[in-house]
């Protein structure tokens, strides 16, 4: 299943004062709260059908086989399942740390 926010919803949100301020470069936490509330009210007032396009499709790729093999990341110390990281130079490293160190994803 694929769920996408309809483009007209996004365009409508870009018309809000919140989006206008953000596009000027104002950080989100510095935009007046009432501006953000206006955008939230727009979203909350819409039905799921108005907000989203829902598609079903047949996935043609292959799913990773589930695993219970796990490692402790030598960088952050968190546990990860082997499909969410790799062994680099003989040491386990999680996907997040790998991405930080190598400026990308596994
Ligand atoms: Zn890590």
Walkthrough of the structure:
- This protein has 106 residues and is of the alpha+beta class.
- It folds into 2 domains: 2-55, no CATH class; 70-102, Wheat Germ Agglutinin (Isolectin 2), domain 1 (2-Layer Sandwich), CATH 3.30.60.
- It contains 5 helices and 6 strands, in the order βααααβββββα.
- The strands form 3 sheets. It has a two-stranded antiparallel ribbon with strand order 1-2.
- The protein is flat, with a radius of gyration of 21 Å.
- It starts with a strand and ends with a helix.
- 4% of the residues are buried.
- The model has no long low-confidence stretch (mean pLDDT 93).
- It binds zinc ion (ZN).
Number of helices: 5
The helix content, as a percent range, equals: 25-40%
Heterogens:
zinc ion
H and E string: EHHHHEEEEEH
Distance between the termini: 25 Å
Q: How would you describe this structure in keywords?
A:
106 residues; alpha+beta; Wheat Germ Agglutinin (Isolectin 2), domain 1; 2 domains; two-stranded antiparallel ribbon; flat; binds zinc ion
Topology (SSEs and partners):
Layout: E1 2-5, H1 7-14, H2 17-23, H3 33-45, H4 48-51, E2 52-55, E3 70-72, E4 79-81, E5 85-88, E6 91-94, H5 95-102
Antiparallel strand pairs: 1-2, 3-4, 5-6
Bound molecules: zinc ion.
